[in-house]
């Protein structure tokens, strides 16, 4: 009986941790199409134990909406191009 109780308790803890895993990861991976000229800031957060991929957070500025933060999928081709562009742009001292 004690073994069964311990097993159920372990199962319950594992289920709670698995459901909390998705909550802690900030990115929903549904970023909009980005104009490079609107990028104000680009942050690359490392992979955490509760997140499968690294988080790429972009701060955009537009006249209509002001500043907005979006999460991007690091595997998308557009995101890879944005990272390359941003590194070159930053090296030029702008």
Automatic annotation (TrEMBL):
It comes from Geococcyx californianus. InterPro entries: Chemokine_IL8-like_dom (IPR001811), Interleukin_8-like_sf (IPR036048). GO terms for cellular component: extracellular space. This is CXL14 protein. One of its GO terms (molecular function) is chemokine activity. One of its GO terms (biological process) is immune response. It holds the Pfam family IL8. Keywords: Cytokine, Signal. Residues 24-86 form the Chemokine interleukin-8-like domain. Residues 1-20 form the signal peptide. It comes from the Eukaryota.
